[in-house]
Structures are given as C-alpha cells and as structure tokens.
Design brief:
It contains 20 helices and 22 strands. By secondary structure, it is of the alpha/beta class. About 1% of the residues have low confidence. It folds into three domains: 245 residues, Rossmann fold (3-Layer(aba) Sandwich), CATH 3.40.50.300; 70 residues, no CATH class; 219 residues, Rossmann fold (3-Layer(aba) Sandwich).
C-alpha cells in the first residue's frame, strides 16, 4: 500500500508558492504545518477528491501527479476514493449528514453512503475507541465541541479507510483525550496498515513526534525532512510552527536559557536541559488583580438539559474587573453550558449573576443580558446573519446600543490587526474558518460589553492570529472589561489568563488565583511551563509562561 503525494502547493501571497512531495507506505505518518491562508485545507480536500474547484491533474503533463496504489488519483471514481480515503475537517459538524437523529444512525449511514451493509461490529469498535457508548443514542447536534470531534472521528474510521487525512484536528479536544486520540490513530495505523496525513498550523507533541515525514511552511520557506532535520532548519520559525514542549524549548533556546541538540518532545527533556546550578530567588511574578467592587459574581445552583443526565450544580465563582479567567476541564464537563447560562442562552437555570453591581437571573431578556455579558459562539457560523463582514463587525454594538453607528478608528485598527480589512465587503460565509472565528470575536470586542464570554477563541487560529487576539484582549481588559474564556489551548491560557477555574461533571473542582502553586498543589491540565517546573527540584510551580521565563532570567 503506497500513497505518493505530489506537489502539495502552499502559498502566503500569489507570487510566493512552495511545494512538497513525498511517498508514504502502510503504517506511516506525515505532518504538514503552515500558517492559515496558505492552502492547507485545499490541499487536504484535493487529495480526498473533495475540492472540485481545483484544476484536475492530467497524466499527460510533465509534472508528477499524486498516486494511490501505483495509479494516478484521477483514475479513481468518487466512491472508490471515499472508501479508501477518510477526511477529518477542522469543523466536525461537516462530517454529519444531518439525516440521522442519533449518533448510531449517523454511523450506520456512513455505510449506506458507500453502498455497503451496516457493520455493527465496526460501530461497536469505534464507539469503544472514542468512548462514545453513552452518546450513541443521543442527538449529535447537542454534543459539546469535543464530543462532536470524537463522534466525527468515529464516523470516518468506522468505514475502514486506508488513508486518513486530518485538518487542524486537535483544537477542540481536551489534552487528555488528545493523547488518547493520538495513541488510537497510531494504533489504527500500526494494526491496519493505515496511512496518516495531518495538516495543522502548529506541530503538536502528541501527534507530530511519530511522523516520518514533516513539512513546515513559514510563509516564505518550506522545511522538509524528519522532525529532527526540520528542528535543525527551522531557526526562529520554531516559535510559530511548533507547540507544547517543542515551542517552549525553542523559546528557551532562543533566549540562551537552554540548548537542545534534539527535538524536545517532552517536558522532562526540557527540564533536563534546565537542570544545573541556579541561585534560589523568590519568584518575580505579576500579582493577580485584587478583588474590587466591579467584576463578575456567578452562582448557578442548578441547570440540566431536558435530555441526558448532565447537571451544573453549585457553580460559584468571582472574577474581578480587568481580569481574564480561564475555565478548563474535559470535554463535556459543562464549560460551554456555564457560559451559556451566564449569557441566558439556555435555561431554565437556578441562581443569579452580578456584573459590575448589576444583578440578574434567567428571567432577564436576552438583549438586556447581552448588554452585560456577550457570548462569542464556538461555531462562528452560528452567529452570522448579515450579508457583509462590515455589517457583522458592527452588528453586536448596533443591537446593544439600539442604533447604527459608523466605524471608529479603534474599530478599524482591530479589524486590521485581525486581517479583516481586505474582506469588509465580502460575505462572512466566504471567509476562511480562522477569519470567521476572528470576525465573531471582533464584533463582540467592538461592542465593549462589561463581560466577554469566549468559547474556544483560539480554535483554528495560527500563532500570529493568537498573538493578535492576545493583544486585543489586553486592550479590552485595560479599558475595564472582564473576560471568561473556555479553552483547551493551555499554553495560550498560560500567556493571557490571571485566574483559572476547573470544571468536572458540572462542578467546580479547583480555582487558582495565585500565579504560584504550593508544593502540594497540582493542576488537572497543566500548561507546558508548569509541566517543566514540576520536573525541576526547588523550582517554584509557576503556571504563567511569562513568570516562568522571568524567574529563569533572574535565577
């Protein structure tokens, strides 16, 4: 079994295009990392036969074309390619037909689409792999983002494809399950001889370290080879194209705090490079904001969905004004549900919310709630309904203020920093997914609510876009705002948050307000810098990346 991938072309500007070719055989994995807007999704869809806008390859051209099993891909009809190739898009909703009412029905329909009889043993197998048995009889449209991604993976693998191609797979999955999925895909590849090809904005340690072939496109240069060979070539591009311990190792290497001859795929490797003589000094950290009269107070004593056993219970938290609090936890823990209760998007719920002294409960109308707490939808398409990007940017402030207004210079600066100014007259639905994500957030930021509720804000964003979002939120907080963010992007949280809340089974299990944990404290989902700190003797347990680096510079 062999897949020859010929000339995957990526480009950041029309006059700057680079391509990569490689061959994969049974059980092998390749990983392609590049910024958004370079054509990763287009390349992935072309290989699966899903991009009908591309000019078809021809056997008569002098340029090599992609081959599967020794034959040009163009010779395979749609059903054959759909049977052999499985595509996992960045938005898992695209994997569902919306015909079946339950996940089990969707899994059965996957066979019908290929003209096959339903394989119930295969359904049971993938349900066990992705821990989906409790969800099989539920409506998949009601799943959390992470549950939808797991269910989408099952819908692809249940068909028994020989090649699986992923597009930004791991953004909405909690860290523990991300490791499980990485191990499951590796097991599938090994046991069934499957070929894996990942496309993403950054190479993650849980997926990328097993790749035989790697390709990194910086926007100007293409670096190819094994992961170790690419590490040696990437230089400063490591900071934007690598994630997890590899990214932190690149920062330490660049700031002359450690030297890595090989790829630091693990926190222990990073810690080992830092071990050595170090003076013991008190950590220099920026303090968390002191509680004041403003900010957010939440007391949700009870909420339950009409179907299912999930409940929010006794959720109480306090977030001072000008504070960014991150809500963390496993998929299905209740993080999005909590935000939607605060925004009055679900109900009925028991309890009360106070924002800057304004108290309300579930009886407050949705428009009045939005003037206090504005929710940024996890799926950006759920928020759009205007015909242009410019109209969407001003829609939230128009609804809150009750009147139209023109763009201010601050609005235009925000749009420019998010890369939206070139698309002001375009339809929001024509934007790439990452820009649709930023458009939703920009519209909410322009409205300047007292409380901003962000649901997976960095999903589908690359390193440059995450930095632009970080800067915009810093301005928002500096103007007196308060932010509550649900995220699985622990290293981004480590850079932006000053307070952490952990949910499990609908309850708060831990709150962290200090930048330094005690020797006996731990976090269910530690950022990379804390993972490293826990492997260093006599090192303060710092979970904010800036504090971690500052301590190393002073020690």
């Amino acid at each position: 079994m062999s897949l020859f991938v010929a000339h995957i072309s990526l480009r950041r500007t029309p006059d700057l295009e680079r391509s990569i070719s490689f061959r994969l055989t049974a059980g092998e994995t390749a990983y392609i990392a590049a910024p958004n807007g370079c054509g990763k999704t287009r390349a992935a869809r072309q290989l699966c036969g899903l991009d009908h806008t591309a000019r078809p390859e021809t056997v008569t051209s002098n340029r090599a074309i992609s081959e599967w099993q020794g034959k040009p891909l163009t010779e395979f009809d749609a059903r054959s390619r759909a049977s052999d190739f499985g595509f996992i898009p960045s938005s898992p909703q695209l994997l569902f037909s919306m015909i079946g009412r339950t996940l089990r029905q969707e899994l059965e329909l996957a066979f019908g689409a290929l003209g096959r009889d339903v394989d119930h043993e295969a359904i049971d197998r993938v349900a066990d792999w992705f821990e989906l048995r409790p969800l099989l009889e539920r409506d998949y449209r009601e799943f959390s983002g992470g549950e939808q991604m797991r269910a989408g993976l099952a819908c692809v693998l249940v068909k028994g494809p020989k090649v699986v191609i992923t597009d930004q797979l791991a953004d909405q999955i909690d860290p523990e399950f991300r490791k499980k999925i990485s191990a499951l895909l590796a097991r599938w590849s090994l046991e069934y001889g499957g070929i894996l090809l990942h496309f993403a904005t950054t190479l993650r340690d849980d997926f990328g370290c097993q790749a035989r072939h790697c390709g990194f496109f910086s926007g100007q240069e293409f670096f190819t080879g094994t992961l170790q060979e690419c590490w040696e070539q990437l230089g400063r591009n490591r900071l934007t194209l690598l994630g997890g311990p590899m990214r932190l190792g690149a920062i330490l290497h660049q700031e002359n705090l450690a030297v890595f001859d090989s790829v630091p795929c693990d926190a222990r490797v990073v810690a080992a490079a830092l071990c050595g003589p170090r003076s013991c000094v008190a950590p220099v950290v920026s303090p968390s904001p002191a509680p004041g009269n403003g900010g957010l107070t939440v007391n949700v004593s009870e909420f339950a969905y009409p179907a299912g056993d999930f409940h929010l219970r006794d959720v109480r938290l306090r977030v001072p004004s000008q504070t960014h609090c991150a809500v963390l936890g496993a998929n299905g823990a209740g993080k999005t549900t909590l935000l939607k209760c605060i925004a009055n998007l679900v109900g009925p719920w028991n309890g009360a919310v106070s924002i800057n002294g304004h108290d309300y409960d579930m009886r407050l109308s949705l428009p009045k709630t939005a003037r206090l707490a504005l929710y940024c939808f996890q799926n950006p398409d759920d928020q759009f309904y205007r015909s242009t990007v410019a109209e969407e940017l001003l829609e939230c402030v128009r609804n809150i203020a009750g009147a139209k207004r023109a763009f201010t210079s601050d609005d235009l600066h925000l749009a420019e920093s998010f890369g939206l100014t070139a698309y002001l007259e375009a339809s929001p639905f024509e934007l790439p997914l990452s820009l649709r994500r930023l458009l939703v957030i920009a519209s909410c930021l322009i409205a300047r609510p007292p409380l901003l509720l962000l649901d997976e804000p960095t999903a589908w964003l690359d390193a440059w876009q995450k930095k632009a979002l970080q800067d915009a939120l810093s301005v928002f907080l500096g103007q007196g705002g308060c932010a509550l963010t649900v995220s699985h992007d622990l290293d981004w949280v480590s850079a932006v948050a000053s307070q952490l809340v952990f949910l499990a089974d609908g309850k708060i299990v831990r709150q962290v307000e200090s930048p330094v944990l005690s020797a006996y404290q731990s976090l269910p989902y530690p950022p990379t810098c804390l993972q490293v700190a826990e492997h260093l003797p006599d090192f303060p347990k710092l979970w904010r990346e800036k504090d971690f680096l500052d301590y190393l510079h002073h020690a």
